[in-house]
Structure formats: C-alpha cells, structure tokens
Amino acid sequence: MSVFSMLLMIVSCRANEQGLCDTVHNSQCANADIGFKSGVHDHMTCCAACQAKPGCSAWSWDYVDFHCHLHHDCTRVSNSRYHSGFGSPSPPGPSPPGPPSPSPPGPAWTVTTFHWNVHYQCSGDGRCRQAALKKFGELAHEVRAEIVVGIEMNGAHTVMHGYTASHEYEDAVSIMVAPGWTVHKKGGGQIRSGSGQRGLAVMLVTPPHAVHGCPRLCIMGVHPGHSHITGGKSIVDGVCGRSVADHCSIAMGDWNTEAHEVRGGSFHSWEALIGGSTTVLAPDSRTCCHPHTCCQYDHVGTNIAGAREGSSKIWGYQLTDQFSMKEEHMPVSLKITLPGSRTAPNNMSAITV
User: Fold this and answer.
1) Helices (H) and strands (E) in the chain, counts
2) What does the pLDDT average to over 116-136?
C-alpha cells in the first residue's frame, strides 16, 4: 500500500469519527428516541451523550428548550429550533452493574391513590378552602386511599388523621401515606417548568406489603407547568436515590399535559423528572378544568416492573353549588396492582423529618 493511500485512510477514519458531532442547523431527526436529556446547553454535549449511548448514531438538539434527543438513525426534517448530527452507531459498551438480586416473587397486592387539584382560586378563599378540605378528606377515605396528594390545597394533611404527611411545598403540594407505611425521608421544592410556582413533594417509604424488586418506594405528588421540565430530578434523587427513583416510583398529580407527553412525545415529563419508563400511566381522561373540561392533565404513574393498571374513579367537579370553583380539576383515584415479594418489608431506620 502506498503512503498516499495510508494517509487517505487515516484522514477518512478521522472524518468518520468527527462526523457525528458535525452539526446541521435547522434540522431535526424525526426518528424515535432511544435516549433523552434535558438541560443541554450546547450541541457538543448532546453529541457526547450520543457517543456514550450504545447504538446511538444520531442526535437532535433543541437549542430553545435545551433538550437533547438521541436516535439510532436519522430521517432529517426541517425544524428551525433544532441542530442535528449523525454518524456511525456507537459500539456497545460494557454492561453496567445490575441491581441486587430481587427477592422471590410473592402474591400481588393493590395500592389505592387519590389526588385533587382544587386550584388556587378556591384555596385562596377561606370558606371555599375549608369546604374543599372537608370534601378532600371524605373522598380520600371513601376509596380508602393509601397514598394521597393535595395540590394547591393548603392544610390537606389536617383532614388525613393518622396519615404521615410531607411538608407543603410550592403550589401547596403535599403527599401523605396511610398508617402502616414507613417514611424514611421526605423533601420537595420547585419543579422548573415554565413560570410560576410548580410544586413537588417526595417521600422515600417502605409499604406495608413487600414489592418484588423494590424494598423501598419513591412516591411523589407533582404539579409541573405547561412547559418542558428542566429541573426537579435532583430533588427526587436527593430524597430517594437515583436507583430507587428510576425503578421503584409512584407519582401522581396535575401534569399539565396529556399522558403520551408524560411518557415521551416532546415533553418526556416522566424521564425528565423521575427517570426510568412508565409501566402504568392512567387515567388519560378529561379532568380539567371547571367549567370547560378541555384537557387530560391528571395522571397516576409508576415505573415498577410488572405493575398493572387497576380500576380508576373520577368524580365530577365538587362544591360548584356553593362556590365558583374556577379552574378546579376533578378528583382522581387509581388502583395499581404491584408484584409482591415473599421477603417481608424492612421498616428499620424510619424518620419523619
């Protein structure tokens, strides 16, 4: 082989190596995502994420919302808010260490959730708030809810006697668990998602019945804004730890978007806030907002492997005969069947700070 041919091969190889990070402006890959990252502020960071992802050979960077979409291949479409790049697929990397071996499976069991966003107009009126609190407690007890979330409802914990409650965070979001659940850690704060207060309440808990593969659960009440989620996962991971959050979470609330956007779509709300992939996400019914009922915003989800959707109950708007209830959501309850474990839950080291 001539020296010239060898030099040509070297240049060609280097060109191929660099091709993935060569950005094409006003271009988006329309293919399905195999990965997603938020808070990405330059195209090289997005490209680096693709290089680190086995099987990734293309990326699309949304430089308006700072989102990075990773793809196996690229069918380019014109989009002025995107840059994209494509090249050869990344070689498979070493398998990450797996989680500890789960306990043997046992009988499945069902957990019942309840949440209600009464909206700030009622919560800001003393008489309306007191009436809403009374109704909140009645409905939660009617379905014997074990995980209860109040949204834009100051004082929700006062009507859930015997339940362990989080603090109230932005938007008066709080979460409570029934007697028999052990709380190890709790926290919350602001979800970065557009403007305004957007609340998040999180608990690390041990349920009264063991869950296969999940000795502890990460449960949360959520109220992101109407925009992409760009912050809040650090709060979830800080309370529960990333491994628990990514595989053993149950979250409910007013997501301000439809179920397909929580699962993926352009929002990827679940992945951006919690991690992992949903195994249950329901209901996807119009629950918002009085008096127009336009939108499918209230959902309960989990990423626990083997979980199954059970029955749901959606009440009509409440207290409309007494108050205007402007922008009120319908109260929602969902049953989720969880895979059981034959290992008894470990309730040690409980704290309720």
Assistant:
1) 8, 17
2) 93
